[in-house]
Amino acid sequence: MHLKLDILAETRAASTDRRLAAINHTAMLLMMVAIAAILTVAIIFQYVKGELPCPLCLLERVALFGVCFGIMRNFRHGFAYRNTGLSLLWTIFLLVVSVRQSLLDIYPRPGHAYIGSPIFGIHMPVWSIIIALALLVAYAIKVTLVGSDAFMRTADIATFPTLKRIADADRAHYDRLAAILTNAGQTPTRANLPHVLSLCSTPPRASRCTLPER
Amino acid sequence: MMATIFATTLLAFVSGWRRHGRWSLLFFFASLALAGGLFLYEIYSPEYGFHMPWLQTYDARPAGSAVCT
Fold first, then answer.
1. C-beta of residue A104 within 8 angstroms of C-beta of residue B42
2. What is residue A202's predicted lDDT score, i.e. its pLDDT?
3. What domain count does chain B have?
4. CB atoms within 10 A of CB B3
5. Residues of chain B that touch chain A, judged by Cβ-Cβ distance less than 8 Å
6. For the residues A39-48, what does the mean pLDDT come to?
7. Which residue of B has its CA nearest to A59?
8. Is the pTM of this model over 0.80?
9. Does residue A52 register a pLDDT over 70?
10. Interface pTM (ipTM) of the complex?
11. Contact B2/A55, CB-based, under 8 Å?
12. How close A22 gets to chain B, by Cα (Å)?
């Protein structure tokens, strides 16, 4: 009788652990998909609408890639809080850069304005603050929900075939995005100087708007 | 510089995918350091330094002249 109850309790615990692992993987996957969507929209704005990013916008994109780096390591090498720490480092970097950029553009004055067209009335630097805060909140909620990580050490994402397929597809998408951004053409040059200066929110003498010769 | 940062990030992704854990972390921290350096370089102005004088955070009126409505 006792043996039966023990087996029943163990089965129940295993089922709970598997459910928590599924919640954790799903939460991380949702974050990764959301960030991929944000980066894709940014690249569409750059290449289709011709809205060239300033260096601080590009640093915000690097930060988003960095956040995904930690998540991908969790999927690739198994769960570890170190990977969460790596993601949080870039999230804090994203928050610092986007707050500084918003403060740069917050007070309208000649030659200073937010870059690019607003989305739902909010400009990209402010969106970046919202995204960074959303990431911090998402991590806080995730840690609160699945705080005990013992079950995560044995629950590889490969045990969830659907999540694994989505993660693989998303990872391939990130490789494409990173390759596009690494290629030439993402940096403003002398050839498009007037256009860049019309978009850039700091005066040309400031280092932020100094453009490389090509 | 920006291209170097993106290339370092890409290398971190690729080496991570190929299970070169140490190289992956090395490139990761290299890109973080480069990005931090570039950020400081970009926000520095020869005229203002790191200050933002367009943001007035003090009350310019003489003490005691503030009117509560």
1. no
2. 40
3. 1
4. 15
5. 2-3, 5-7, 9-10, 12-14, 16-17, 19, 21, 24, 28, 31-32, 35-36, 38-39, 41-46, 52, 54-55
6. 87
7. B35
8. no
9. yes
10. 0.79
11. yes
12. 22
